[in-house]
Amino acid sequence: MKFKGRESDAWHKNINVAAGSGKPTDVDFPWIKLQNHTGYYLKKKGFLPQCQTDERLLDLIRNHSSKEVAIAACAQHISTPALRNLVVNELKVEPNGAFGLHEYSQAIVASNHANPEAVSDIEAQWARCLSENAAHGSSSRTLGQQLQDMLPLLPDQVASGLLLQTEINSLACRVCMGFAEQLEVLSSRNRWEDAHVAAEWLSTISSSGLLLIPNPGARQLLDSQLPTWGAWAAWQPSVARLHAWNDYAVRAPSPLKDLLALEGPDFASMIGSAHASLRNRLIAQGISGSQTTLHWGNSHVRFKRNPFTESGNLNGILDRLTSVVDFACSAGGDYTALLVHLCVGKTITDETLQILEQTRLLDKPPLTKVILQAFTLPNQYSVSGINEIIELLLALRDSRLDELRKWTQEYAFGCIANQVRELQNTFRQQIDAENWWEDSAWELLIFYDRLQEQTWLLADLDHFVQDLIASRPPWVTIETLGIIRNSIGSVTSSAPTPLRSQVDAYCRDLLVPGLTGFPHVRGLVEALIDLWKQTRDEKRLELALLIADFPNTSCQFRCDCLGDLTTLPYELVISTLRVLKFPNGDPDTELFTLIRLMASENMLSALKRWRHILLVVIERHHETLLRHAVTNLSAEMWLELLDRIRAIYEGSEVIKDRDSPKLLSLEVHGWSQQMAVYLPTLTRLKSVLKCGPAMEVLLLGLSAPKNSQLLRVLNFVKDSEFGHHGRLVDIIIACLHSGNVDDVENVLSAICQTSSRGAEACLSVLGSRHHETPRFAEIVVARELRRDHSRQDRLALTRVARLFRISLHIERHPSRLAKVADTLHEQYLQLMTEAQRLENLRLSLRAVLPQDVSKLLAKLRLEASSVVADTLASLPPLLGSLVEEVSENEIELRFPAPDLTRMQRLAIGAGDAEDFLIRLTLRHDGRPIKFCVRLSGKSSDQMNPEVTSKRDGHTAWEVFKGDKPPQKLGCRGRPNRDIYQLSRMLWHHLRDDFESLEQTHDHITSKVSMLGQGCLVCGLGQRRLWRGTTCPTESCIITFSEADDEIQVVEIWQDPPVMDLLLTMICAAASTGQPELLGNLSASNATIATSMLDALPPIPTLAKRLNYCLNVFGESFQLAQALLGYCNPPSNSTSLACCLRWACTSYRGFLVSAPRQQRIPSFGIHQFLLVNAAPDLEIAFSRHMPAPESTSQILFHGTSLDRLHAIVCQGLRAQSRPPLQRNGATYGHGIYLADEPSVAWHYAKVSEGGWKSSELKNLKVLLGCELAGQKPPCKGNGIYVITDATRLAVRYIFLLENDAQMPAAKNVRPPMESGLKSIRKRSL
Q1: Region at 363 (left for phi over 0; alpha for psi -120 to 50; beta for the rest)
Q2: What pLDDT digit, counting tens, does each position of 871-906 carry?
Q3: CA separation for the pair 429, 423 (Å, rounded)
Q4: Which residues are in the PARP catalytic domain (predicted)?
Q5: What is the pairing mode between strands 347-348 and 299-302?
Q6: Cβ-Cβ contacts under 8 Å for 816 (sequence gap 6 or more)
Q7: Which helix (H) or strand (E) holds 890?
Q8: CA neighbours within 13 Å on the CB side: how many for 599?
Q9: Closest CA to 1158 of 1318, 1268, 1320, 1303
């Protein structure tokens, strides 16, 4: 390799390339290549003296970046003194120099390799050792391995002149110190296995305390830095035991340091006399005759007898101890804690070892935990592991566990006794806190039963525990008490009750004997328990709880009542239960039922005790009962009630004088007996007066003197029942109360002598009392007193006025009369205002709920005019015949359309309809809120009259709901484009511009006359057409695509040949592969559409299928759903439906089969009329034809089916260049037409393609075109070239066979001109 520049630069580069990243200590270092580069360098320099060679090579070494590599390349050619001087002096390692120990060591290795005389082998070995340590540190080799390699290399003594002596001694010292620290850490952490692995190599360099390395420096290093090296070298432990102990030491630091040290080295002996382990030294050491304890570290082992000096026995003791330690390390947990507690810091005895060995014999961690607690917490009895305590007691029956039983049995029995006390305390606390205690009672009983099942255990238990087990109550008793207590809460209340406390106390006495209970209630609770055992009748048990908790009665009385419950009649049980169960509610009706049952003859003898319960209830609720009786009971039932009460308490002193409740009052019962003869009168008054003070006075009576007056009052009432005074007397009686008996008697005595005229006058006065105007009754009294009444009548009037405190002298106070007049006038005005408000409210409610309002007014016998009637009345007479009332809030507007031509009817789908009908729903103010648009007559399916559409109802569109105009038309009949357009116009008008129905009628009339003008969606941008369509705006096209399918694909029903033509020309254009012919339909979509169209049947068959689906689905009809049967897979139906919609809407014109009158002779059966093209084409053409009488010419153009779709959509265009150019441009750029059909026919072509079921395949196309204005000059052979495409309009489309004969122009032009004139004048 040759480099430009100086030879030294080349040498440096070559050396770097050859060495790469290698170092002299590497095995594959390239020594030869490097030396060759230096030899080449010297060769280039020629012969040089050795001194110059040394100078040049040393200069290369000094300037090279990697001096050890440079030395490896040059050292062979440098003299020994120069090389030694370089290594010793120039490359000396400085503390802060750039040349480090690692590089210096590499340089020494390189120098030794090239010139061993300059650098000795021992120096090279030291260098290698230092280099390896500097490069890798301790990452690759352990400290022990490093120390083992260094010991043989240590110098015996310091020699002058040798390199790296200080460095190698310092490194060896550091490694030895690190090794000593490592062993110290491992031994302090009890990781003896790791320590054995680290120090095992020491045994290979030592024998009987002598170092096998013949190097005093190595022995001196070990003695100074690792004084215990002899113990480590002599160490021969049990490796398996160290492994087990090491796993335990790694998991957690252990306090068992002294015990684990038994397998450790013998550090106490001198070097050369160390034993294989500490355990071996202890055995070898033995004990003297007077010694009873063996010591090491902080541990002590004491023996039972003395002497115990035989090594075998001592060996056995230590074997037992290490075996216990082995188990503790493997088991861990509580056993280790037990070992620590018994051995660490304490004297280890034979009993200690037996306890540990017997615990190991159990080998059950839960039992070990209990044993640990027995030693660590002997006075704290645990209750959490009672099952384990029982299991331990059972295990302690084994004779092998005598020592363990001696130390733990007492603790176990204490735990059982403590468990009993804890369960009792828990139960007692629940009782004292009045909480639910059943769970704690079950736990106590379950524990008793478990102890009783342990027959081997009973004799050793505490006496109080034995007594509790022997006297424990049966399960059924506690269960019954729990049911009773639970039932108390559901029957009485959730709050604590005396009965609940009594049950709790009884249960506490059963389960916790010795506590002071309630001895006087034991009989009551036991009576409840007996009753629960005798019957399960829920009603009787429920009543039992209420009786047991009944207040103000003795326990014996309640016990006797509980004894009666099993034989008490069921009806009486139910009635009593209902009365007692609702003490704060409404028990009155049930109480009366209970009184009736208890008064029956067959029960009186058996109910002596229960009469007292009835008495307590009556006394507790007498006010409520009395009020209920007077208010709700008839007079007959009231008297019967009192008779039954007397029958129940006959022979007792319950019914007594005034101090008793009125139901039990002697006066009330005496008065009721006198009322028996007035029962019919009281019954009638009850029906008239209902309830109140008057009826209460009559039923309850008053004091004895006033009762005589009441009897006279009743006589007046009885005598006047059938006279003309009856109604008046009833009114007077209604004001009776305890303080006006005298006044009422005087009034009735006067009334009974009045005439019928006087009675009417009194009634008039009484009726005026309820008038809102103050003092109105005074005016009525004054008016009646001025009239010609008899003296007796005037007396009656006067007494009536005084009874009701009506003044008789209002005439003396004119100011009062004026005030009354003003008040009446003000009330009149208020009534008129309220009447107007109610009328507005009626109108508002009628708009929302018309039927409900009508029913309400009919029920109130009120007649009100409807909002429709009000609206019709406001219309001018000319509209009267055009607006019809449909219902109370609906009207229908009629817009006649008699002048529609046949083609116009076909365009809008009107059929035989004569009118557009708009139905409006009006709200209360006459503003329309809903509407629907339809055609009159049977035009709902004008394309196929035999089909009955399911759109036979009126579905109104709400004006103010949402922000979108009508999109789906659901009213009666099949939807069409003009109804769609008219509905959207009407929605905008009613929402934003409505003023009156007259204005709405004028607005819609103008729109009907202009149907077809403007976009179907936005209403803007195009002239009047035969059939409306959308503007080219994308938003309008998308909106119209969401309209009903019946609007978009109407050609299927209306004109099947046209639908056939549309599909045929689309398929033909798609087969050419020219996307320009299909407008916005992509070529891929066109190919897919063509394949799907082939699955369709002929159009008439398809129309029948769709009509059937319309009949079945009605408003929910979807074109894609109807096409499912023609698609495979069915998911293609959506794409096929989109294709059909696009075919019918993309050309935006009106194409029909030529009507019979417009058909041209000699042009075959396939004749079509393009009544109007797309709006933009018609607008452009109309600029050349401003009036129907404008001049136009008829020309012909031959083409093919594959070009026809583009022509229908875009009109004829000049295509004078490929790929759309068909026949060339002989006469220049333009549209070529012919005067004669035969000339144009020559240029027509048969197109390939077409859908499978088409009747128009393989036909040529001849177009009849209308040219606005005059013909241009003829180009020859009757051919005309039109350069302005807007002057042309395609009107006729003829499809004929290839061999068809063309008629002469003079024969077909007159009928064609007639047809075109009809199109222009809209008379077609």
Answers
A1: left
A2: 776 678 777 778 888 887 788 888 887 677 888 788
A3: 10
A4: 1189-1248
A5: parallel
A6: 775, 778, 810
A7: strand 890-896
A8: 17
A9: 1318
Residue 1154 tokens, joined: 């030529």
CB 1147 within 8 A of CB 1208: yes
Helix axes 311-331, 278-285, angle to 10 degrees: 150
Q: Which residues are registered as beta bridge partners of 931?
A: 920, 957
Tell me which residue of 997, 998, 1022 sits closest to 1010, measured CA to CA.
1022
Tokens 């003070």 — which residue?
693
Beta strands in 1117-1165 (DSSP E): 1150-1153
Rounded (5°) CA angle 493-499-505: 125
Comparing C-alpha atoms, which of 1206, 1192, 1232 is closest to residue 1312? 1192
Give the CB-side neighbour count of residue 567, counting CA atoms within 13 A: 7
Cis amide leading into 1129 (omega within 30): yes
Q: What are phi and psi of 651, to 5 degrees?
A: 85, 0
Is pTM, for the whole model, over 0.70? no
Please, are residues 1178 and 1150 in contact by the beta-carbon 8 Å criterion? no
Residue 1154 pLDDT greater than 70, yes or no: yes
Of the pLDDT bands very low, low, confident and very high (cuts 50, 70, 90), residue 1289 is very high
Q: How far apart are CA 46 and CA 1083, in angstroms?
A: 86
pLDDT above 70: percentage of residues in the chain? 85
Q: Where are the beta strands (DSSP E) in 522-583?
A: none
What is the greatest pairwise CA distance in the chain?
181
Q: Are 706 and 741 in contact (CB under 8 A)?
A: yes
Strands, E, within 72-150: which ranges? Answer: none
3-state DSSP percent of the chain in helix, strand and coil, to 5? 60, 5, 35
* Cβ-proximal residues to 960 (8 Å cutoff; 6+ apart), any chain: 929, 991
User: HEC states along 420-479?
Assistant: HHHHHHHHHHHHHCCCCCHHHHHHHHHHHHHHHHCHHHHCCCCHHHHHHHHCCCCHHHHH
Burial of 395 (0-12, 13-18, 19+ CB in 10 A): middle
- Residue 1287 CA to residue 1266 CA, distance in Å, equals 8
DSSP 1067-1094: HHHHHHT-GGGGTTS-HHHHHHHHHHHT
User: What would the two tokens of residue 618 be?
Assistant: 């009556």
C-alpha torsion sign, points 560, 566, 569, 571 = positive
The string of pLDDT tens digits covering residues 47-89 is 888 888 888 888 888 888 888 888 888 888 888 888 888 877 7
CA distances from 850 to 842, 856, 886, 927, 960 (A): 9, 10, 13, 15, 19
Least confident of 348-357, 385-394, 492-501, 870-879: 492-501
